[in-house]
Amino acid sequence: MAQNKFKGLGIALITPFKSDGEVDYEALTRLVEYQIRNGVDFLCIMGTTAETPCLSADEKKILKKMLVERVAGRVPLLMGCGGNNTAAVVKDLKEGDWSGIDGILSVCPYYNKPSQEGLYQHFKAIAEASPVPVVLYNVPGRTGVNMSAETTLRLARDFENIVAIKEASGDITQMDDIIKNKPDNFDVISGDDGITFPLITLGAVGVISVIGNALPAEFSRMVRMTLNGDYEHARIIHHKFAELFKLLFVDGNPAGVKAMLHAMGMIENQLRLPLVPTRLTTMEKISSILKELDIRY
To answer: Annotation-wise, does 15 bind a ligand?
Structure first.
């Protein structure tokens, strides 16, 4: 039976770019070491936060190879593999190189808005084709379709290699329904930094985090405290970061966290179109809060 390795603090890893628009592999190497040194539990690569739709096929191959070699098994790697063409995803799973990858994160099909039965059949095909464990990803704000608790639970019961779901529906009742009725070998992972604390108190096992790119030590401390039942101290950290949670997404993701990492001197503040950097006012607020928090790097 497949086990879920993706617990605690996972990072939705960004892709740094140079001022000329090319991938900044040196900055990415520094960022990965910073993450691991500061206690992250796993890395999620080639996701939305990595601006994967704007990476070329060659860049994706280079990045995957580089990240597998750099991480060298120190933490599990969860790699994005999804789309709205089921046959193309299945082909990629069957023909791709998955060495060094511990699981795939597969988003609900976007834009073409399948029914719940369509979602079930899509992930059934992926589960049957995948050589590694599967983590579902429900993010209706991006895909235009919400996968119901009923469909999630049906998939969890029917396929042992579907080990978890990254839930970013924003519907706490739906998430709680999944946690309450799930099989023992299936977990819920928060897909939203701002609700990670309450969701873990309900029974989620961790988060795939955006803010953790910049603040892995602080955010992992909150996640571990919550998982260990130290809600009082975890809540203090949760509230301390409440304003940053909002600022990270007000101009879109990953514009906010890239602005934060730039303010920390770690990367260039570069994104690929159609994404653009945060507004100056947002950047100033982020820099101001970082100074107030007095976090040392």
So the answer is: no
Q: Is 166 a catalytic residue?
A: yes
Q: How far is CA 212 from CA 41, 190, 218, 229, 258, in A?
A: 11, 13, 8, 21, 12
User: What SS3 class is residue 2?
Assistant: coil
What are residue 97's DSSP bridge partners?
A: none
pLDDT value at position 296? 55
Q: Characterise 78 by phi-psi region: left (phi > 0), alpha (psi -120 to 50), beta (else).
A: beta
Residues 173, 266: Cα–Cα separation, whole Å = 38
Q: Which of 5, 137, 182, 258 is catalytic?
A: 137
Q: Hey, what CATH topology would domain 8-229 get?
A: TIM Barrel (3.20.20)
Q: Please tell me the distance from the alpha carbon of residue 218 to that of residue 294, in angstroms, as a whole number.
A: 12
Instruction: Please identify which of the residues 7, 64, 166, 258 carries the catalytic annotation.
Output: 166
Hey, where are the domains in the chain?
Answer: 8-229
Cβ-in-10-Å burial (0-12, 13-18, 19+) of 160 comes to middle
117-172 pLDDT per residue, tens:
999 999 999 999 999 999 999 999 999 999 999 999 999 999 999 999 999 999 99
Cα 124 to Cα 134, 153, 178: the distances in Å are 11, 13, 18
Is there a catalytic annotation at residue 18?
no
pLDDT of residue 90: 98
- Which pair of tokens denotes residue 1? 């039976």
What whole-number distance in Å separates Cα of residue 100 and Cα of residue 65? 9
Q: Is 208 annotated as a binding residue?
A: yes
- pLDDT by residue (tens digit) across 108-129? 999 999 999 999 999 999 999 9
pLDDT, mean of residues 85-95: 98
